[in-house]
Amino acid sequence: MWLDALTLQLGYNATLVALGAMFLGVAAGVTGTFLFLRKRALVSDAISHATLPGVGIAFMLMVALGGDGRSLLGLLLGSAVSAGFGLLCIGWLTRFTRLAEDAAIGAVLSVFFGFGIVLLTIIQTMTAGRQAGLEGFLLGSTAGMLWNDAMIIVVGGVLTLAVVMALRRPMTLVAFDPEYAAASGLNVARIDLAIMGLAMAVTVVGLKIVGLILIVAMLIIPPVTARFWSDRTDRVVWLSGALGGVSAFVGAALSAAAPSLPTGPIIVLVSFAFFALSLLFAPSRGVLAAFLRHRRFQRRVHMRQGLLALAQGQPIYEGFTLRLLRRAGLVEKDGVVTDQGKARAAKALRDEKRWELVRADQALEGAAALYDGLRALETVLTSDQIEEIDRRIGGPKGVGA
Amino acid sequence: MSGAEFVPLSLTPLLIGVFAAIACALPGNFLLLRRQALIGDAISHVVLPGIVVAFLLTGAVSAWPMMLGAAGASLIAVGMIEAIRRLGKIEPGAAMGVTFTAMFAAGVLLLEQTDTSSVHLDVEHALYGNLESLIWLDAIGWESLTDPVALAGLPEELPRIFLTLLGVAAFIWLFWRPLKISTFDPSFAQAVGVSTGVIGLALVVVAAVAAVAAFDAVGSIIVIAMFICPPAAARLMTNRLEVQIAWSVVFAALSAVLGYVLAGYGPIWVGSNHAVSAAGMIATISGLILAVAAMFAPCRTRSGAPVG
Fold first, then answer.
1. Can you list the domains of chain A with their CATH numbers?
2. For residue B22, what is the domain's CATH number?
3. Using a CB-CB distance cutoff of 8 angstroms, which residues of chain B are in contact with residue A220?
4. Stretches in chain A below the pLDDT threshold 70
5. For residue B148, what are the domain limits?
6. Is B281 in contact with A118 (Cβ distance < 8 A)?
7. Nearest chain A Cα to B300, which residue?
8. H-type alpha helices, A282-338
9. Does any domain span residue B272?
10. What is the pLDDT of residues B128-153, one digit of tens each?
């Protein structure tokens, strides 16, 4: 059953929905990256909640004009209008009052959503409203979706994706370095507007599949996940798109296989699973990598301190240092220093003395700045320079009796 | 309208609405000034899995385990947001977005997978609450307020939200100075020995408690609106924190009363006999108050100077 779902064997509409979700997921992942890099990820939360009154008003309008009010296209148009109005409100509040953007986002989100709920309760009392199924827009439902609706989602997903692809270069530039983008002649405000418009398009198209409460996750989780794997903007963009597409496809397909599972939460949890894996295992930024890096650093510090202590004949009591030295074969089990240990210790002490001279010498200031107690001198100075320092230290001297 | 009708049907929901609104608006003032306004949004989403898990563990819809579950879920969420922010060096807004959507999705999924058809627990209820149904059936009029038998039949949400409000107010009153200093000048606060981290966490916990208690009675949508709209409108009225808090209390109470009355009686005035969602209406009114404040309030501009 699960396999059937993933390989698109569950009927025509389910296949269409899964493909539409995938296109939408890619578009959301890519658009979300630009939002995320502009540090405006939560604006999408306000956009998505602000769609609800539009859905309600569109339904009532369509009923008043004699239709049955359930035309998905009309509802989506309504939601786009009210989401756009919500965006205008946020912009107006942040520009003309002293409120910060987060307060404006929260205010628009809660008020629009509250008003939408009022409209929904009105619609429930209308004779045409009882089977409207507008609640499906809250959490998304693909069960029993009509062919027309599925087509709207596929076409909407593809169109959004096409616009994202067309605009990705200027958007990358603005997301990465807005000052440079402005200096090179791009209209940053207009590009920002385009990013917002695309986020709105993703929200509106995804409304029916994911629902307005969770659609924001498709715009936030894939970019954050992708950010763990790369520091390059273009790679984050592509990776985020891929992650978004895969999560949306898998989520939509699984939920088609088990109709009791609502689509939105499944998609969100699939992409959260990718996120959790990345948080733990991503190279360099992941928790595991950070832990290993920390351990490696710890070992180097203990090794260095141990060698210096050996060279100066001081006793070592610290257990971890002793274990490290024993494991490297520098100290015997009974604590006697091996020949190799003596050699390494002597080198460590000499390096320490060399560094001391380097740091005292103003001519070698650049190299001295790199001193951290662990770095080998050979990686900083040429062999000629080291010889020069050794000359200053002088050769071994006899110890006075 | 006579007391015989008002007291049993409208007095308790009104009071619960007002108390919940004020309990959320009080910590909201500080969250707003600290640029953490969306914490309320995040908390109100993450309490859902907490409540569902509490229901699954106890098998019954009872208030205290659910409140504990919700409080636990908000603490987990705060921890997760911090962990994602620090470990992944992710900006706080995005870290919050990842956390609350994932937890809310988990809550919805758990809810859909369990058989809750016999009890009153569903996503819609969590969103809009059931303010209208918190009626006081034992009351027969104003005289019931002094009748111990009738008072015993008060909906249990009322004393709970009242206690929460007292607790929130006490926290703000007791920690007024550290809260104020650490909000406006964190480095000065640290210099005079206030541990800003602890104060910040305590504020979030108090906000979570208020959110959870209010959530139980009035649903998450009022919680988010009351955390942000009354403090934001109050912020536009004054430059003084004391005055701002007073305004926010006034705005919160006004939204609750007006919203409830409009939701219950407004449709009757326009000739319909179906009430609309009180929670949604209260949020809408608070938004209208904010809109008016944003257009006419004396301190609405960024410089802070009163306008002409």
1. 2-263 (1.10.3470.10), 288-393 (no CATH)
2. 1.10.3470.10
3. 94, 97-98, 101
4. 1-10, 127-132, 142-145, 259, 396-401
5. 3-219
6. yes
7. A97
8. 287-311, 319-327
9. no
10. 677 777 777 777 777 777 777 777 77
A120 contacts B35? CB cut-off 8 A? no
Domain assignment present for residue B232? The answer is: no
Q: Look at residue B85 and tell me whether its pLDDT is greater than 80.
A: yes
Question: Is B260 a domain residue?
Answer: no
Is B224 contained in some domain? Answer: no
What residues of chain A, 83 to 142, have a C-beta less than 8 Å from chain B? 92-93, 96-100, 102-103, 105-107, 109-118, 120-122, 125, 135, 138-139
pLDDT-derived band of residue B213, with 50, 70 and 90 as boundaries? Answer: confident
pLDDT for res B254:
95
Looking at the structure of chain B, the number of domains it has is 1
From chain B, the residues in CB contact with A268 under 8 A are 101-102, 105
Mutate to test the interface with A, among B103, B277, B295 (most CBs of A within 10 A): B277
CB contact under 8 A, B105 and A135: no
